[in-house]
Amino acid sequence: MFYKRLILIVVLGFLAFSSCELDYEDNQRILVTGEVRNGEGVGLANIPVEISTNNLLFRDLAGKINTDEDGVFRVVILRPKSFEDLSITFNDLLQQNANPQYRETSVRIEATDIINNDLKLTPVTLEQVAEAGK
């Protein structure tokens, strides 16, 4: 029982003294660009794209945008001083503007893969949800 209390105190102490806010890298930005397509390679319009930064304990929303009429998106986010990776979610079905015809998908990009604050993603293909009875 003593060890459980000690562990709890250490964890609570760590959380109390760690900041939940990100520290940003001298106003530097990261340009994230990409394209969202269907299975036939056609760009999908108005698909929500969310970008989050991840570190050891926290995930913070860094930017949100919808694809244009050609399925292309371009968003600029602030660059945190320290983060492990970016999570990019396409068509989050919990969002009101998600397209229910397509499945949600996510990708993770390691911080070391971002060169000169520019991140060009390869095209992302969303899988179509099968219709009932097919």
Can you characterise this structure?
It is globular, with a radius of gyration of 19 Å. Strands 1, 4, 7 and 8 form a four-stranded mixed β-sheet that branches. A four-stranded antiparallel β-sheet has the order 3-2-5-6, with no helix packed on it. The longest helix is centred in the N-terminal third of the chain and has 16 residues, at 2-17. The mean pLDDT is 83. Helices cover 12% and strands 41% of the residues. It has one domain: Sandwich (Immunoglobulin-like), CATH 2.60.40.3330. Strand 2 (48-54) and strand 3 (59-66) form a beta hairpin. With 134 residues, it is mainly β. It has one helix and eight strands.
Task: Quickly describe the structure.
With 134 residues, the chain is mostly beta strands.
Q: Count up the domains.
A: 1
Number of helices: 1
Helix content: 10-25%
Q: What's the multimeric state?
A: single chain
Total number of strands: 8
Distance between the termini: 56 Å
At the fold tier of CATH, the topology name is Immunoglobulin-like
